[in-house]
Design brief:
This protein is an alpha+beta fold and 134 residues long. The protein has a domain of 47 residues. 22% of the residues lie in helices and 16% in strands. It is extended, with a radius of gyration of 24 Å.
């Protein structure tokens, strides 16, 4: 949810007024009045396309104690600890250069299958929604 009902102050004609926390003013609550189309434009920036899932890290995956909690979960489940990959030592002459700036070195992190753009589009918009029928 991008904005809760409690933060909406009023909807009058073509204007929407809502509360927000201004971190530049020490976290003080302030009100902002916007034209309805601008409010909807900003609101829609927080709506994910179909097929995408919002990931929130809280609970077991919160940053504060993630490693400790995951280790405890593995222990309770009887799972093996994760295997750390062995670091590989490459000399600078063996590493490829960045194809854009030709300055930086590219360090291999692993290999993945490259997704096809048609699969990504189909997953996002559905099988037939993205085809032009004109």
């Amino acid at each position: 949810m991008a904005i809760s009902n409690e933060r909406l102050v009023s909807i009058e004609g073509d204007y929407v007024t809502f509360r927000y926390k201004n971190y530049n003013a020490g976290g003080r609550l302030q009100e902002l009045r916007l034209e309805a189309h601008e409010f909807l434009r900003r609101f829609m920036q927080h709506v994910l396309p179909r097929g995408f899932v919002r990931i929130r890290t809280f609970g077991l995956l919160a940053n504060g104690h993630r490693a400790t909690k995951l280790a405890q979960c593995r222990e309770l489940l009887g799972a093996d600890p994760p295997v750390e990959p062995e670091p590989q030592d490459f000399g600078p002459e063996e590493l490829p250069r960045c194809p854009h700036c030709r300055q930086g070195l590219l360090y291999p992190a692993g290999e993945t299958d490259r997704p096809r753009i048609s699969d990504l589009v189909a997953r996002t918009y559905g099988e037939t929604d993205y085809h032009d029928t004109s």
